[in-house]
């Protein structure tokens, strides 16, 4: 079977999430989408997640045939994720230690059902990002053939249309910095920083892993800001506060100047809404997994498991904990999954491979990997133009982010909200994942960083500290000896 890799995070996501994706594609995809389109084959394997090439072509066709459904389906994604987040936030306020096994099991059944209905939309931005930015570019070219102007137009159109939590955090800490410069007392400043960390700390983790940013983390960020004079901080605060209104004014001016049709404007607005929803839901992943964590920790304790072991269990295995004891054989299997695994949905059946099965399944891939690593030139798509030459810093998980050095070239499978500090410090950004609506593409435009996306193989070819040359405008990465 030919596979189309959709996204790559290098390290596999927890099975407690990916099993839900398998269930979602099997049980809910047609309920929430075009009834004719099915995703029958999906896998998490070798650090990436993808669907069969046949399913991918059907997925793309579904969106090509239904441009009027972009907003409808993306709103459904947002609604389901909001319901999941709100449920987990409510669960966070209860005391799981006082709940009976039956009550915890019932809560987890509801959680897993909501999670599956939310993640069934998890990859929508990929077919949208493949089809519609190119379509927008095609009708812009009819109005202007100036390459620089076209790039500027697309940059405005594909900018973040409304604030997400990342933007709100930046505005919030700038506001605190302005207050501090004006003489806010230490006691009140500490209180404001505690509130800030409580509200935005989740940005430090991602989907069941990592820990929230602490007050101390944000105090370090504040200390850097306070090196600036007050007028400069006030200017930065107002710029951040007004940036979305200014971007919308720029977009309105483009629409008027180019005399775009109602249909063209509607498509632009749909794509911008899809872009925004994808970023909001990316943040919601972390919010809901942080909210539900105390429940998962309590379940882990009751059944003598570590938190990591519990998150590497399939949905039915977690629910079965409440009815029968875990065998040593099953525990050994779970430990093996933490090391490596492949999780497959194949025509309605879900399989989890470890040990000899995994070794056999991996053999063709390992042969391809050996050939990949000999390549001296890698190509991808331009997310933001520019050139850079420097050392590679390979990010395999969020745990690698704190050590990211300023001026390195960030190479990763795909970026997430937790990558933002490293992206700001980077010389350039390279990802395996593609799509003009991917997180890396959006943030590279935001920070004006040269960025090549959709390389598919960069994380498996490039090595830490090797020197490379990036020509993002041409989508080329050259390994230098």
What is the element layout, followed by pairings?
Elements: E1 3-8, H1 15-27, H2 29-32, E2 41-45, E3 48-52, H3 53-65, H4 70-92, H5 101-119, H6 125-141, H7 147-157, H8 165-181, H9 186-200, H10 215-225, H11 230-258, H12 262-291, H13 293-302, H14 307-311, H15 315-320, H16 328-339, E4 342-346, E5 349-353, H17 355-372, E6 377-379, E7 381-384, E8 387-395, E9 409-412, H18 420-425, E10 428-431, H19 439-447, E11 451-453, H20 458-461, E12 467-471, E13 476-479
Parallel strand pairs: 8-9, 9-10, 10-11
Antiparallel strand pairs: 1-3, 2-3, 2-4, 4-5, 6-13, 7-11, 8-12, 12-13
Helix pairs in contact: 1-5, 3-6, 4-5, 4-12, 6-12, 8-9, 8-10, 8-11
Keywords:
single chain, 481 residues, alpha+beta, Glucose Oxidase, domain 1, eight-stranded mixed β-sheet, five-stranded antiparallel β-sheet, 57% helix, 13% strand
Provide an overview of this structure.
- The protein is of the alpha+beta class.
- It folds into three domains: 206 residues, no CATH class; 115 residues, no CATH class; 103 residues, Glucose Oxidase, domain 1 (3-Layer(bba) Sandwich), CATH 3.50.30.
- The protein contains 20 helices and 13 strands.
- The strands form two sheets. An eight-stranded mixed beta sheet has the order 6-13-12-8-9-10-11-7.
- The protein is globular, with a radius of gyration of 23 Å.
- The mean pLDDT is 95.
């Amino acid at each position: 079977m030919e596979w189309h890799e959709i996204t790559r995070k290098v390290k596999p996501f927890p099975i407690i999430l990916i099993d839900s994706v398998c269930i979602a594609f099997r049980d809910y995809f047609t309920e929430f989408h075009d009834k004719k389109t099915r995703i029958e084959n999906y896998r998490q394997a070798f650090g990436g997640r993808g669907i069969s090439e046949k399913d991918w072509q059907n997925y793309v066709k579904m969106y090509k045939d239904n441009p009027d459904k972009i907003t409808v389906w993306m709103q459904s994604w947002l609604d389901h994720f909001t319901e999941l987040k709100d449920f987990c936030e409510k669960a966070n306020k209860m005391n799981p230690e006082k709940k009976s096994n039956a009550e915890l099991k019932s809560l987890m059944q509801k959680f897993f059902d909501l999670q599956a209905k939310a993640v069934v939309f998890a990859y929508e931005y990929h077919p949208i990002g493949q089809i519609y930015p190119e379509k927008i570019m095609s009708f812009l070219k009819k109005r202007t053939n100036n390459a620089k102007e076209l790039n500027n137009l697309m940059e405005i159109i594909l900018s973040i249309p409304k604030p997400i939590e990342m933007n709100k955090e930046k505005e919030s800490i700038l506001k605190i910095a302005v207050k501090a410069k004006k003489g806010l007392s230490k006691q009140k400043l500490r209180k404001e920083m505690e509130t800030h960390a409580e509200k935005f700390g989740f940005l430090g983790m991602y989907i069941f892993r990592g820990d929230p940013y602490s007050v101390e983390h944000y105090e370090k960020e504040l200390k850097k800001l306070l090196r600036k004079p007050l007028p400069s901080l006030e200017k930065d605060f107002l710029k951040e506060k007004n940036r979305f209104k200014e971007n919308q004014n720029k977009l309105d001016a483009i629409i008027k100047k180019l005399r775009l049709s109602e249909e063209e404007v509607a498509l632009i607005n749909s794509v911008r809404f899809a872009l925004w929803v994808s970023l909001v839901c990316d943040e919601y992943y972390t919010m809901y997994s942080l909210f539900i964590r105390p429940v998962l920790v309590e379940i882990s304790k009751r059944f003598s498991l570590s938190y990591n072991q519990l998150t590497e269990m399939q949905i039915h295995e977690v629910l079965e904990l409440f009815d029968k004891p875990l065998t040593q054989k099953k525990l050994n299997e779970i430990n093996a999954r933490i090391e490596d695994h492949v999780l497959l949905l194949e025509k309605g059946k879900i399989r989890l491979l470890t040990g000899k099965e995994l070794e056999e399944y991996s053999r063709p891939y390992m042969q391809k990997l050996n050939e990949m690593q000999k390549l001296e030139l890698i190509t991808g798509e331009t997310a933001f133009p520019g050139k850079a030459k420097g050392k590679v810093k390979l990010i395999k998980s969020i745990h690698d982010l704190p050590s990211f050095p300023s001026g390195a070239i960030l190479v990763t499978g795909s970026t997430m909200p937790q990558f933002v500090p490293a992206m700001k410090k980077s010389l350039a950004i390279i990802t395996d994942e593609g799509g003009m609506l991917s997180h890396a593409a959006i943030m590279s435009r935001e920070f004006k960083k040269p960025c090549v996306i959709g390389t598919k193989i960069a994380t498996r070819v490039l090595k830490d500290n090797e020197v490379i040359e990036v020509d993002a405008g041409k989508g080329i990465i050259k390994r230098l000896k």
